[in-house]
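In response to reviewer comment 3 from the previous cycle, which asked for concrete evidence that the modeling workflow produces usable outputs, we include below a single protein chain processed end to end. The sequence was submitted unchanged, and the resulting structure tokens are shown without manual editing.
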Amino acid sequence: MSGSDRVAEAIEHFPRVQTVINVQGDEPEIEPDAIDAIAQTILNGAEVATLAAPLPEGSLEDPAAVKLETDNQGNALQFVRRVNTQANWQLHIGIYGYSVHALKAFTSSSPTEAEKDFHLEQLRFLENGVPIRVVSWPRAFLGIDTRSDYDAFLTRYIGTSPP
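The workflow returned the following structure tokens.
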């Protein structure tokens, strides 16, 4: 079950909710203004929105760093874990905004083969024709994708890493 499936399950208890923002747990240092930008994008009519930043050095080959490419209108074309060329890749940041309508459509469709193969839930939206608006952000946040990322996070916030 994907994070979006779990969010859809949770909002069933809140029938008046029309929009949802899902900040994934691996983004503890996301800036509040970035969350606001996603919310505003949904309020302005996008069905689904996410955030992207310039690709940090060394991220191109890192499968933990999800990359995305957009079209000229700012919609996601594809999400990948591995790439062979620089092209116009950006770093995907783990936040989504959804209209409840889009989220319900997502959960009513089965996971696609690409979603299962690459462990990228956003591919289900794209493969079912739901555009994902990408909000560009000037910088990436220090996310937690690996054990070393987690240890660095602990060092920043409690001054020591675990044994």
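The chain has one domain: 3-158. We consider this sufficient to address the reviewer's concern, and the full set will be provided in the supplementary archive.
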